[in-house]
C-alpha cells in the first residue's frame, strides 16, 4: 500500500486549479447536444479537450522552473491553439455531413468508453509533490485519450475538411506523448537518486 505524502501549499494550489480545469473539460465533453452529424458532434466534444490542454499547460507554467517542462507546455499551448482554430473554422461547414443512426450509435458507444477511461485516469490522485511529474502524468493520459478519440472518428464517413486536422492531431499528440514519457522517466530517475 502506497504511503500518503503531505502535499506542499504550492502543490495543493496547482492541483486545485488542475481539478477545476478537469471538471470543466469533463462537463464540456459530456453535455453536448448530439446531432446526426458525427463530424459536428466530434468538433463540439473535442473543443473542451483542446482548451483543457491549454489551461493545464498554463497552470504548470505558473509554477515550474524546469526548462524542458516549460518548452513542452509552450509547445502544447501552441499546437492545441492551432488545432482549436482549425476546428472552429470548419465547424459550420462540417455539420452538413450526416450519418446513419447505426453509425451514430457505434460512434457514441466508443466515444463514451474512451472518455470514461480518460476521465477516470485523469481523476486518479497525484502522488508527488513534484508538480512537473504530476503535469506530465496528467497530460500523457489526456493526450492518449485524444489520440483514441481522433482514431475513433476516422472510422466513419466524416467531413473531408476534418480528416487532415485529425491526422495532424494524432501525429502531434503521439510525438508529444513520446517526449513527455522520456521527460517523465528522466524526472523520476532524478527523484530516485
Automatic annotation (TrEMBL):
Residues 41-184 form the DUF305 domain. It comes from the Bacteria. Gene3D superfamilies: 1.20.1260.10. This is DUF305 domain-containing protein. It comes from Lysinibacillus pakistanensis.
Amino acid at each position: 500500500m502506497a504511503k500518503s505524502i503531505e502535499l506542499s501549499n504550492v502543490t495543493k494550489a496547482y492541483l486545485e486549479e488542475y481539478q477545476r480545469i478537469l471538471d470543466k473539460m469533463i462537463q464540456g465533453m459530456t453535455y453536448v447536444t448530439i446531432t446526426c452529424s458525427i463530424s459536428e458532434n466530434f468538433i463540439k466534444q473535442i473543443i473542451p479537450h483542446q482548451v483543457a490542454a491549454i489551461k493545464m499547460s498554463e497552470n504548470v507554467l505558473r509554477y515550474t522552473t524546469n526548462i524542458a517542462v516549460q518548452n513542452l507546455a509552450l509547445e502544447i499551448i501552441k499546437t492545441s491553439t492551432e488545432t482549436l482554430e482549425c476546428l472552429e473554422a470548419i465547424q459550420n461547414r462540417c455539420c452538413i455531413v450526416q450519418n446513419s443512426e447505426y453509425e451514430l450509435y457505434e460512434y457514441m458507444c466508443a466515444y463514451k468508453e474512451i472518455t470514461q477511461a480518460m476521465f477516470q485516469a485523469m481523476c486518479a490522485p497525484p502522488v508527488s509533490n513534484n508538480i512537473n511529474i504530476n503535469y506530465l502524468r496528467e497530460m500523457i493520459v489526456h493526450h492518449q485519450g485524444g489520440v483514441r478519440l481522433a482514431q475513433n472518428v476516422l472510422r466513419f464517413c466524416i467531413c473531408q475538411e476534418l480528416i487532415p486536422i485529425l491526422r495532424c492531431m494524432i501525429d502531434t499528440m503521439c510525438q508529444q506523448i513520446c517526449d513527455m514519457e522520456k521527460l517523465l522517466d528522466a524526472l523520476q530517475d532524478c527523484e530516485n537518486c
